[in-house]
Each structure stands twice: as structure tokens, then as C-alpha cells.
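Entry:
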Amino acid sequence: RQKTLTEEELTAIWETQTDQPLVVGNVHSMLSKLAWYFSPRELSCLLACFKKSWNEATEHKVRQDLLQFIRQLAKDDRDGKVAKEVLVLLWDLAHGEETPLELCELALESHAKVLGAYHISDAQRRDWARMCMQDIQEGTMV
């Protein structure tokens, strides 16, 4: 790894998305494949771009596509590094004070899919299960 993307370059790539589903799909596909090679700084920048798009999205379909992208990041991960960050992001989205119930449920559903299917250790699964149980006990996410 000799060359890395600057935050400006990565943000510019993210912002090439338009209202055209094919363009969005291509950008998401490319970035999900590249993310495995990203440095922690680059991954952080990509997730910041995701959060910004999530917060600015007004259409349900756009947020569904964003959740599909974030799940794809975890699926394409080979060592659990990206999946771990994706789980934290999805948890935060689901617990956001301004996240509508329907989107909260979609984020939690995506969280469960990542936990159940991708490069997550049993210890990490137990940790997340404990957090879910704590939410249930506290009545946070019922």
C-alpha cells in the first residue's frame, strides 16, 4: 500500500452519486470492494460520508440503498475490521434520537444480518447480544 486516498478524493468519489440508481450502485460496489484495503483514516472518512448522506436523505429508498451498501461493506470484509466498524455505525443509527422507528428497525435488521453472516467472532457476537439484552432490560429498544 503505497498510495492512499486523501479525504478530499474519497469524498469526491462518494459525491459522484446522482439520482441514477446505476451510478449509485456502481459507486457503492466499487467502494465496498476497496474498503478492505482502506487505512483506518480512509474507512473513517467513508463512514463519515455515509453518515452525512444518511442524515441528508429524505427518501426511504435512499436510506435502504445506504443500508444495503453498509451491509455490503461488512460482507466484502475479509478480516472483520470493516464489519466491526459497520456494527458500531448501525448501532448508532438505530439509537439515534432523531431516527424514525421504521429506519431504526431497518438499521437493527442490518445489524443482525452483519452479526449473523460475516466475519464476526463469537466473542463479538456475545458482546453485541449483551448490549441488546441491556436495551431490552432498560426498555430502550422495545
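The mean pLDDT is 87.
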